[in-house]
């Protein structure tokens, strides 16, 4: 009797297992596959640029014989005094910029043909510094290759070449295209958007262009070499469409003032030694970024290096002896 009951129980369990297996098989065969997940196409509110611009690429900051410093994501205390001839930072580092990604508002970039302090929050350089002599000038055509700077850290906002379109402002070069016509690479480097500011069209095409041409066609062509620093400051400028504080949906700040300092010595060697002698010309201008009031003549805006320092908070010409610094900063040279 017990054997019959056990046999009946085993048969019942086997039947239950078989039925469950059949139902599970049928359910799996008729199940609709899951829909693939959608790939997000929403752009980040901060970095809206292509993924190729967001790599954690660490550029090697070299300028042939003009080595500045290798970029680093960790070392925010790299201080190197650059004293070699033709070095873009021979006159000093105005804001003590460092190649450290944590310094989002004062990040040192070396683009071979110029060096800059980049401000990611403003979307523009604070200042750009470069050396200019006859060897930088040639017959290379203007490339007009405005583009985002792919070597900026991925966490920075990457301004695109089209982001100034219809803003009422020009893509104003700091280191100008005309100062880098010796070869195509040099000229193309000046069209990186990390070298641009929103500049009032009349300032860019008339006042500023006039000063750039004077530097090349009068100073350099006369047998001189120049150490140049250009920058901008303040918030809010007036373009062809009126006054605004920012463009590109608030991501690029429009400066209120644009300035430049040109230090001039005869072409030669041992530049720092000769600069330290004090027998130097310094031409400095500080212009309004205002399309309505800007004068065509850059000479209307001649000022002193000291006045620019007071307005910006930067320290210029710091590699020179103190007595020479003081004398040059106070000088107002009128060509």
From TrEMBL:
<keyword id="KW-0255">Endonuclease</keyword>
<feature type="compositionally biased region" description="Polar residues">
    <location>
        <begin position="57"/>
        <end position="69"/>
    </location>
</feature>
<feature type="region of interest" description="Disordered">
    <location>
        <begin position="29"/>
        <end position="69"/>
    </location>
</feature>
<keyword id="KW-0540">Nuclease</keyword>
<feature type="domain" description="ENPP1-3/EXOG-like endonuclease/phosphodiesterase">
    <location>
        <begin position="111"/>
        <end position="323"/>
    </location>
</feature>
<dbReference type="InterPro" id="IPR020821">
    <property type="entry name" value="ENPP1-3/EXOG-like_nuc-like"/>
</dbReference>
<protein>
    <submittedName>
        <fullName>DNA/RNA non-specific endonuclease</fullName>
    </submittedName>
</protein>
<dbReference type="InterPro" id="IPR044925">
    <property type="entry name" value="His-Me_finger_sf"/>
</dbReference>
<keyword id="KW-0378">Hydrolase</keyword>
<dbReference type="InterPro" id="IPR044929">
    <property type="entry name" value="DNA/RNA_non-sp_Endonuclease_sf"/>
</dbReference>
<dbReference type="GO" id="GO:0004519">
    <property type="term" value="F:endonuclease activity"/>
</dbReference>
<dbReference type="Pfam" id="PF01223">
    <property type="entry name" value="Endonuclease_NS"/>
</dbReference>
<feature type="domain" description="DNA/RNA non-specific endonuclease/pyrophosphatase/phosphodiesterase">
    <location>
        <begin position="110"/>
        <end position="323"/>
    </location>
</feature>
<dbReference type="InterPro" id="IPR001604">
    <property type="entry name" value="Endo_G_ENPP1-like_dom"/>
</dbReference>
<dbReference type="InterPro" id="IPR040255">
    <property type="entry name" value="Non-specific_endonuclease"/>
</dbReference>
């Amino acid at each position: 009797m017990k054997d019959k009951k056990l046999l009946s129980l085993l048969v019942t369990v086997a039947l239950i297992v078989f039925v469950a297996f059949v139902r599970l098989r049928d359910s799996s065969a008729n199940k609709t596959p899951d829909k693939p997940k959608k790939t997000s196409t929403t752009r980040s509110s901060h970095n809206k640029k292509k993924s190729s611009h967001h790599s954690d690429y660490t550029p090697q900051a070299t300028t042939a014989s003009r080595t500045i410093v290798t970029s680093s994501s960790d070392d925010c205390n790299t201080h190197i005094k650059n004293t070699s001839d033709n070095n873009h930072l021979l006159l000093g580092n105005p804001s003590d910029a460092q190649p450290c990604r944590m310094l989002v508002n004062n990040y040192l970039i070396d683009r071979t043909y110029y060096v800059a302090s980049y401000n990611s929050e403003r979307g523009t350089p604070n200042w750009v510094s470069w050396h200019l002599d006859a060897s930088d000038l040639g017959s290379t055509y203007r490339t007009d290759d405005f583009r985002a700077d792919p070597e900026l850290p991925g966490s920075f906002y990457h301004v695109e070449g089209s982001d100034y379109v219809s803003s009422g402002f020009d893509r104003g070069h700091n280191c100008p295209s005309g100062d880098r016509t010796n070869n195509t690479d040099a000229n193309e480097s000046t069209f990186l958007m990390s070298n641009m500011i929103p500049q009032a069209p009349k300032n860019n095409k008339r006042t500023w262009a006039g000063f750039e041409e004077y530097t090349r066609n009068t100073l350099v062509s006369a047998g001189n070499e120049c150490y140049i620093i250009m920058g901008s400051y303040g918030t809010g400028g007036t373009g062809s469409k009126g006054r605004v504080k920012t463009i590109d949906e608030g991501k690029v700040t429009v400066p209120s003032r644009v300035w430049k300092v040109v230090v001039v010595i005869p072409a030669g060697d041992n530049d720092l030694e000769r600069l330290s002698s004090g027998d130097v010309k310094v031409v400095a201008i500080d212009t309004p970024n205002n399309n309505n009031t800007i004068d065509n003549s850059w000479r209307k805006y001649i000022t002193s290096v000291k006045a620019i320092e007071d307005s910006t908070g930067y320290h210029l010409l710091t590699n020179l002896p103190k007595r020479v610094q003081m004398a040059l900063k106070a000088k107002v040279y009128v060509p």
